[in-house]
Amino acid sequence: MKSKITNQNYGLMRNVDHLMAQCPLKHEIRTTLWKSYIQGLGAKPIKYLTLYSPPLMDVKFLHKMGFISVTNSKYDNVVGVSLDEKAVADTNSQTEHRLELLLEGDINSLLSNADKSIENKKKLFESFPFDVINLDYTDTLHASNKTEELSPHFSAIENLLRLQYKKNKDEFILFITAYAKVDLYNKYFLGDLVKFVKENISHTPNFSSKLNSTFKTKDANEFKKADPNNFFLIGLIKFILRFLKPFNYDIKSGEANWLIRNRQPYESRLLHLAFHIQKYVPAVPKKRTYVGKNVNFVEHKSVRFIRNNFLTLEEKKDYDRLFKLHQNEINELNSMTFELRTPAPKE
Amino acid sequence: MISSNKPEIIPIEVSSRILRHISRGIYRSPAGALKELISNSYDAGATKVTINTNYPSLDTIIITDDGNGISEKSFRKIISQIGFSDKKLGETITVKGDRKEFERQIIGHYGIGLLAIGQLTKEAIIISKTEGTLEGFKADIDFEQFEIVQKNKIKTAVIKDEAELEKLDSSQKAKFPIGECTLQRVRFDKTEKETSFTKIELTLIREDIKRVIKGEQPTKLFPEISKQHVYSANFEEILKLLREKEKKTADTKIKNQRIPRLKEYFYEMLLWELATYSPVAYPGIKEFETDSELESFSKEATKLEFDVVVDGFILKKPYEKYFWSSKKGYKPIVFKWLNEKYYKNNTASAFIVYQPGTMIRPKIMQGVLVRERGVSVGLYDGTFLNYPFNEGTKFNSLTGEIFAQGLSGAMNIDRDSFNQASTEYLEFTDWFHNKLYKVVFPFIKKYQQKKESPSRTKNQELLLKIFELLSKDKQKIRKLEFQELKGEDKKRLKKSGNKLIINTKHKENRLNITQREKLLLAISLITGEYITTEIFDDVSDEIENYKSKLRSDAKR
C-alpha cells in the first residue's frame, strides 16, 4: 500500500523541518556525527542524496566543510527529493545555489513501484550510486496505523541498498533519522523487534552476555518494558542490518545519537543513526583445508550497539550551551540564499 | 449643441474606462511586467536584482535590488500619480560599481512600475530605504480591480468582472483610483545606515499569471503536457532544454506524432525572455571574450555591471557554447558594425551571425533583437524589422542584435515595440536594411554558390548511387524503404525484388525528413515512375501534382 501523506501532515512536517533546521542540537549532530562519518569515507567531493528540509542546512554545511563543490552556480552531485510543489519552491529559494537535481515526490514511493511519476523515478534511479545518503526522516519508520508488513520507509531503505549494489557501490555512508517514540510504532513491527532480540539472546552468547552486563537483562520482553528506548535502538539496528546481507554489504562502523526535545509539553525523541557501509570481503581462512561457506554475519554486529553511552542531546540540558556554540554558524548558513540580503525593519 | 456662432473650446479627455483598462495591465506577458521592475532596479542604480518566483508554487514573487532605494517623499508622488516620474529621458545616475563609481544612462521615464505590479498581483508590500538614513518606508498595496477567491482552500486573486468594473467608471474624477496603499515609516538598525535597497513582495499573485507561468492554459487541448515541470540546475541547462526540445519535436514528426512545440516549457521561456530583455552580461564563452570578434559588445554589456538572478539562475544573454560550434562542417560567420550614425547624432552598433547550412536553434532566436541602452525592445524579430525583400530560408540562418541610441521616443509605452511611423525608427530601419541588402545577403549568396551545402551533397551522392544501381538492373523500383540493415554498416543500398532498401545503418544515409522528401521527389521525377514508401504515401499526391505542373510548364 502506498504511504499517503496528507496536506495536513505536510504542514506539520514543514514546521518540524523548520524547527530542526534552526535547532542547535541538530547542528551539533551535523558537526559531529555526520561530519566525522563523511570524513571517514575519505572522499571529496561527495555525491550526496538528501531529503526535503529547507533551508537545506546539511547541504550548505557540507559545502562549507568542502565535501560538496559548487561549479557554474550549482551544488555538484547533490540530489534532493522534495515532497511537493511548495517544498520544491522552498528548497530552491532558500539556497545560495541550485542542486544538481531536485525531484518532486516522496522518496519512499519514488524508490518503490508506487509512484506514477516515471520521469522522476527514472532520474532518481539514474543518479545512483551515492557516497552519502541522508534519510533525515521527521516521522516514525513504521507508524502504528500502517498495516503493511514492511513500511514504506523500510522498503525505501531496502530499495536504495539494492540500487547502490546494482551500481557496484562498494563503500558509502547511510544516515537514518527517525522519531523513536516506541508507542507511536506499529505493534507487529515491535513484536518483530522482540523476536529478533529474543533470537539473539538465545543463539548468540556474545549478545546475551553484553546485554546482561550493560542493561542487566536476559529477556527481550522485560528489556522492552524496562528500557524501551534502548530496546528500540538495538532492535531497530538489528532490523536495518538484516537488509544489508542480501546485497553482500557489511558495516565498517556505526553510531547512534539521541536528540530529545523536552522543552515542549510532549517530549519527543529523534534517533540519528550513522552507518559506514562497505562491501563484505570474506576473511582468508586460517587453515587451508577449510572448505565451508564464507557467510556475511553482518547482523551479529548489532552487538556493537549494546551500549548505554551513546551521545544524548537534550533541549533542557544542552540547548543554551549549543546555542552559544552554533548560533553564528546557523545564522550564516540560514542567510545563504540567492536572494539579496536586506535588513528587516525594527518592530 | 452649439448655441451661437461664437467658437467654443471643449477639453478633450480620456474616459475613465480607458484608464481602467490601462491600469489592468499594458504588458504582453508576465515577463514583460517583470522586465519593467528589472528596468526600475536598473534605473535605481542597482548592480544586482534577485527575483524569487517560488516556482512551481508561485505563492509569492519577491523582487529585491541593491539600488539607491526610494525616499518616502518620492514614493508618495509615485502612488498618488502613476505616470509621474522624476526621471528624465537621457538622464544619467551614479552607480557604485564593484571597483569604482560610474555613470549609467537610465532607461525608463514614464513612472509606471506600479502598473507592472498591478498586472501581476492583487496585494504587494514594498519596503525601501535610501543611503545615509535609518528610516525607510513600508507600503502595503491593494489593487481594487481584483477579487479574492478560494481555490483548493488557497486564496488566489482573479480579475473582477468587466461589467462590475464599469459600474465604478461612471464617476468623473481628475485622478483615477486603482487601489489603496497603507504607508508607514519604518526604522532600521543603526548598522544599516549606509544600506540602500528596495524589496517588492507580490503576495497575492493573480491566478491567470500563475497559469501562464506554469503553462496550464493549453490543458484542454493537450492534457498530457499540463504539469510538466522540468528541473534545471543552471541557466545553461535551460538553454539546452529549449534547443533540444525543438530537435526532439523535429524527430518525433517522423513518427507522425503530434506533440506541442517549444513553448511547452513556459517557465523556462519566462527565464529566457527575462535574460533576453535584461541588460545583463554575455556568457563567459570564448566568442565574447578578449580578442574575439564580439568583444566590444561583450565589454559594453559587462560595463553596465548589472546582474539578474531569478530563482537562483544567474541570467546571461542566451547564447550557448553550442551556438558557436561547427554545424554540418561550417562555423558561424559574424558581421558587425560599430557606432555608425543612422540619424543625426543617433548611433547604432550591430552584429549579425550567419549559420551556413543550418537554421538558428532555438527558433526563437531567429531574427534580430533591438536594444535601447542595453534593454531589448521586444524579442527577436523574424521579419528583420520588416525587411522588404524575400530572402527565403536565409532568414532562418540569421540572428543578431542591434544596440541603438535615440530610439526611446519611438518606443511604445510597454517598451515592447516601436511606433513604426516615427522618423528615428524609419531612419534606423533604413540603415539596418541597407546593411542586410548590401553586405549580408550578397555575402551569403556568394558563399552558398562557392560551397554547396553538405546536406545537398549527401543527398546527391545517394541519388547517384541509386541511379548507378538502377542502370545496372532493368527491373523497375516500385517501393522505397528506409531500413536499418543489421550488421551491414557499410552497405548503402540493397535491392529486394521491386523494393529498394536504403540502409539507415550507413552513416551517410541518415537523412532528415526534408532530405528524404527531396530524394524521393528527385527519383520520381527522373525515372518518371510512381514510387511509394511506407512513410511518404502522403506526399505522393504532391509529387504527382508537381510532375504534371512541370509537364504543363514544359509544353508552354
Overview of the structural elements:
The complex is a heterodimer of chains A (347) and B (556). Chain A is an alpha/beta fold and 347 residues long. Chain A has one domain: Rossmann fold. Chain A has twelve helices and nine strands. Chain A has helices at 7-22, 24-41, 57-64, 85-93, 107-110, 118-127, 152-166, 187-203, 205-215, 220-226, 228-244, 315-334, and strands at residues 48-51, 70-71, 74-82, 98-104, 132-136, 171-179, 249-261, 268-279, 311-314. In chain A, strands 1, 2, 3, 4, 5, 6, 7, 8 and 9 form a nine-stranded mixed beta sheet that branches. In chain A, strand 5 (132-136), helix 7 (152-166) and strand 6 form a beta-alpha-beta unit. In chain B, strand 5 and strand 6 form a beta hairpin. In chain B, helix 2 (30-43) packs antiparallel against helix 4, helix 7 packs across helix 8 and helix 11 runs parallel beside helix 12. Chain B has helices at residues 16-23, 30-43, 72-80, 113-120, 162-167, 207-214, 235-254, 266-277, 295-303, 423-450, 454-472, 513-527, 537-555, and strands at 48-52, 61-65, 92-96, 101-105, 123-129, 135-143, 146-151, 154-159, 179-187, 197-202, 307-310, 313-314, 333-343, 346-354, 367-372, 375-376, 398-404, 479-483, 493-496, 499-503, 532-533. Chain B has 13 helices and 21 strands. In chain B, the strands form five sheets. Chain B has an eight-stranded mixed beta sheet, with helices on one face. Chain B has a five-stranded mixed beta sheet with strand order 13-14-17-15-16, covered by helices on one side. In chain B, strands 19-20-18-21 form a four-stranded mixed beta sheet, with no helix packed on it. Chain B has 556 residues and is α+β, with helices and mostly antiparallel strands.
